[in-house]
Amino acid sequence: MKTLVIAPHPDDEVLGVGGTLLRRKAEGHSLGWLIVTSIDAANGWTDQQISRRKQEVQKISQLFSFTEVFELGIPTTQLDIVPMKELVGAIAAVFASFQPNEVFVPHWGDVHSDHQAVFRAVASSSKWFRSPSVNRILAYEIPSETDFGLNPNESFVPNVFIDISPYLSKKIEAMQIYESEHEKHPFPRSEDSIHALATVRGATSGFQFAEAFQLLRERM
Amino acid sequence: MKTLVIAPHPDDEVLGVGGTLLRRKAEGHSLGWLIVTSIDAANGWTDQQISRRKQEVQKISQLFSFTEVFELGIPTTQLDIVPMKELVGAIAAVFASFQPNEVFVPHWGDVHSDHQAVFRAVASSSKWFRSPSVNRILAYEIPSETDFGLNPNESFVPNVFIDISPYLSKKIEAMQIYESEHEKHPFPRSEDSIHALATVRGATSGFQFAEAFQLLRERM
Amino acid sequence: MKTLVIAPHPDDEVLGVGGTLLRRKAEGHSLGWLIVTSIDAANGWTDQQISRRKQEVQKISQLFSFTEVFELGIPTTQLDIVPMKELVGAIAAVFASFQPNEVFVPHWGDVHSDHQAVFRAVASSSKWFRSPSVNRILAYEIPSETDFGLNPNESFVPNVFIDISPYLSKKIEAMQIYESEHEKHPFPRSEDSIHALATVRGATSGFQFAEAFQLLRERM
Amino acid sequence: MKTLVIAPHPDDEVLGVGGTLLRRKAEGHSLGWLIVTSIDAANGWTDQQISRRKQEVQKISQLFSFTEVFELGIPTTQLDIVPMKELVGAIAAVFASFQPNEVFVPHWGDVHSDHQAVFRAVASSSKWFRSPSVNRILAYEIPSETDFGLNPNESFVPNVFIDISPYLSKKIEAMQIYESEHEKHPFPRSEDSIHALATVRGATSGFQFAEAFQLLRERM
Amino acid sequence: MKTLVIAPHPDDEVLGVGGTLLRRKAEGHSLGWLIVTSIDAANGWTDQQISRRKQEVQKISQLFSFTEVFELGIPTTQLDIVPMKELVGAIAAVFASFQPNEVFVPHWGDVHSDHQAVFRAVASSSKWFRSPSVNRILAYEIPSETDFGLNPNESFVPNVFIDISPYLSKKIEAMQIYESEHEKHPFPRSEDSIHALATVRGATSGFQFAEAFQLLRERM
Amino acid sequence: MKTLVIAPHPDDEVLGVGGTLLRRKAEGHSLGWLIVTSIDAANGWTDQQISRRKQEVQKISQLFSFTEVFELGIPTTQLDIVPMKELVGAIAAVFASFQPNEVFVPHWGDVHSDHQAVFRAVASSSKWFRSPSVNRILAYEIPSETDFGLNPNESFVPNVFIDISPYLSKKIEAMQIYESEHEKHPFPRSEDSIHALATVRGATSGFQFAEAFQLLRERM
């Protein structure tokens, strides 16, 4: 079995699916990581930022033992102006290459326009006759994205809860690789917040710690 | 693995889940059938009707090789006036006895008030700390119930498609056991309609024939 | 200003609104508590249970300094068979007596049929020309009720976040008065779960700890 | 063509569909009026109230020239405890007798439990193989019912606007027959409010005055 | 009466509205066809593809006896980067020229971004004071578009069913004009799938074969 | 306290929030006005139009005594092609400068793509750790925008009603400053329509005249 996580930006894969990825690995799945955006000098990022990002991606790749890492290299925060056709084609090409069975995608109600664009592109690129390997698609939740939307009709309504009790500490460790992202609670991506969210999702589902997802489509 | 189908009335299990039950059987699952309502003389049913119903239940039990059949015996078309507490308790007792992992339930938007009551009762009776065996709940669709609702906010939105290609003919054969129910198309439970619905669900999911469900909760 | 919390069962007021009630008190509001159901010998409760419930209500009343406590005394878990007319009349009478401005009610998507009935009754009893004092109605969330619904269209979508940072420890202390209700995590009403939920709601809203609500109607 | 309006209580037909009924009459439709509830001495109504109600129904019948008036005679405000089976049967019998093509029903989100029960019963009683004459079902809106719901997921979303410019004054005249119901604005059923709602619905649809409906099902 | 079908790409008009168009023709309506996108050499299409497309459009025009065919000529799969202002203006111009009364549009939940853009543009271009002829707008369903969306809040909820029993065979014949599009079931646009969908929609509405639509706005 | 209204185009602030702004002023709030778009010669507007627009903005500023007026100067009807990143940054800069507590925004379901873009940008720019002053966000309704949407899932569902009885006449007077916008009823922005909408919203909430809003987020 092969699991692919689609991350608009590095760190989405840890925040949304980190525990589940570690569990899938332990269950024997091959893991793939599709990073949609990148940062570059042309868009005003410093060499130091670019190089740190590269190191973060490398460390995360090792920690999760990703079989393959795909980088589309589209400038970050600009997916809303990239033609949908290109994004669909690029994601479909990754599906064709990696042949994932289970795919994790950002939620359509996320505040970031990059997340929204990725979600929309996956609907097109995952049609069964185009990408027949894909038989299970789930949306993950990202603190300060999925819970920050203003449109009540686009809220995250989880229907799948995955026990990550043995993996939470390593998920939090993974988040610490992203130096720039960690601040103290109530900053939504703090260690406390991640721990609390896993606890709440666990209380709903009967596990010590859980990650929650919204199943979008399964074919079996 | 154990699969339980909750049928407000006999024939719901065939119409909604017939192909999947046959597949689950082939995959080695134990199957349970919970029939919520019954017909009796006190409510104006003839001896002939009651006896035919008994035979139908028996034939269906054999055809699907149900490990256990549970009958709550509540008078049909009267679930809306049965105290919810009783219905919840009765269903929870079946969960405790059969210990199902996968449960199929009617959809909340079904027109029949019996279906609606059963759906509501399952939400209570399936809480993880009350019925820990239950880790996957799906709503099925019933022609002339699920597609006949007038409230657009309660429509069936399938997210799970199960390949029943090898089992459709036996599903239709099972429906023929319910003599009173089969009429010609466009009657919604005709052989043509059942065949067409399986074809449409298959086209959406890449199978010759499929049954569609709405996943309500999964914990793994 | 007067704040009324409507609790189908004692403990809902703490779980859903405990921190906010303490804050409202500190802000100078008068607090009212409407307990809709009760337990009695006729429905099979022991004298010990009844007497303990009485003591719990008394202790909670003192802890929150409720100006008034209203008890409708309808047998618990039976609101679905109480005529809606009676429930509407009884709640409207409390509105007329206490004259609340802000009212907290259970969410329509709660699993318990008692919660659903109370929600529906409030819609009728709070019409402005019937209960003109009521100018703000909010639905609260209850672990293992609001997050346990199976109907995705009835999910809780919070739009009001109230900072309860100074009050969380006293809220948890209040929950400990309900001896029968506290178990360890992942039991959804454990101290850990309550703490985690307040942390998650805080991360979304920029407070150390928060309670979340869904505003249903405000007139100003 | 035959048009039937289903009114839980007398005056719903005027408030919700009054202008359209007058227009349908002018267009040559036969009009039917199904009054679901009644008031009687057993439920505490005075002879005077009962007799006035009778006169109101008579005057309204004349004003709209209803071909047939059906009264189910179920005590008002008690439809939530009437078995759904009875209500479905009674409404289906009226469909069988009057053979309506177009049916107007209350909205599911109305605050009054009588309205909700009627809506639910119509879904069952209007199935095409049970009531083949019915080929168009629309929900109407009632001031202080349809706009007073607290559940945002049950709001009225009109998709049909009918020009009632020539009929608004007669609709308001009809409302004056119901003496007990008319008070001054902002009372929601005042002449001013009715006039304003027709103006607003007209502005949305390009008519001087309009009534708005939510089409639920049409088969042609 | 004039009916206009808006097709993002040729074949949408047949798949979504083919039977109804033939029926409208038989009922005496004038039919218009608005094709939004085109293929050209600049975007990498071969002369052969372009010429075949031209022939297909011609054959379809004849088969349906369209009074007028409008082609906006925007490159296919690129509507998401066309300024909305342009698209709105172009569609409004067609409304002004053809003066349609009934308009069929793609559904907002279709997977293809071209379909989504067309839907959004119609909302603007169909305002009553801008395009007063338009008094009825319906969304149609397209296999592998309308049923392939991943966002459950954007699902197609049909409320209008049109009997196309006498026209299904000619609709299927029309589809065969589009050589490139027909493959065998379970390919979603196969003859079997089209036949099955018409059967399912018929079972819901009491006709041998039907097309289903979602009424968006009607003013009469 | 500081209140900011975000208007995609001048006149949205009057139509949607005019009465409330006057009331906020009377209550002692500072008022800010953020005008997102402008008209210029490069996009084909005449000098006369540009100069009249300038005068209208000035007169409105005086009438409402805005403390600050911000103009982003993005060409009107083109927000759908402006990179979301720019729009988010520009709005966040205004939040940083004016430090509003209460913010009024257009509704996501408005027909105009400019309104939709502004709504989406606010979700990003109003995150609490980015714009901590913002603690209350409400969507307003605009005749012929908010009520003209074709997607029923995006309808305006008001939950906050603000009494503007003393301010309606001045709101209408303010609208008359926008000469180009006023026509007679049923034109949706006529004096009659504005008066009628305020009456309808008042009837729902118990005031002579009211404005209605949908609360999106409040943190207190």
Oligomeric state of the chains in view: homohexamer
Radius of gyration of chain A: 16 Å
Written as H for each helix and E for each strand, in order along the chain, the element string of chain A is EHEHEHEHEEHHE
Q: Largest interface here, residues on each chain?
A: A-C, 27 and 27 residues
* Principal-axes shape call of chain A: globular
User: Which sequence of strands runs across the widest sheet of chain A?
Assistant: 3-2-1-4-5-7-6
pLDDT averaged over residues of chain A: 96
Strand count, sense and barrel status of the largest sheet of chain A are: 7 strands, mixed
Total beta strands of chain A: 7
Query: Could you list the spans of chain A in which at least 5 consecutive residues all have pLDDT below 50?
Result: none
Class based on secondary structure composition and strand pairing of chain A: alpha/beta
Tally of individual helices of chain A: 6
Helix fraction of chain A by DSSP (H/I, runs of at least 4) = 25-40%
Distance between the termini of chain A: 13 Å
* Percentage of residues in DSSP E strands of chain A: 15-25%
Task: Kindly describe this structure.
6 copies of one chain form a homohexamer. With 220 residues, chain A is of the alpha/beta class. In chain A, 39% of the residues lie in helices and 21% in strands. Chain A is built from 6 helices and 7 strands; from the N terminus they run βαβαβαβαββααβ. Chain A has a 7-stranded mixed sheet with strand order 3-2-1-4-5-7-6, sandwiched between helices. In chain A, α2 links the parallel β2 (30-38) and β3. Chain A is globular, with a radius of gyration of 16 Å. The two termini of chain A are 13 Å apart. The model of chain A has no long low-confidence stretch (mean pLDDT 96). Chain A binds chain C through residues 143-144, 147-148, 152, 155, 157, 159, 185-188, 190, 192-193, 195-197, 199-200, 202-208, and chain C through 143-144, 147-148, 152, 155, 157, 159, 185-188, 190, 192-193, 195-197, 199-200, 202-208. β6 of chain A pairs parallel with β7 (210-219) of chain B, so a sheet runs across the interface.
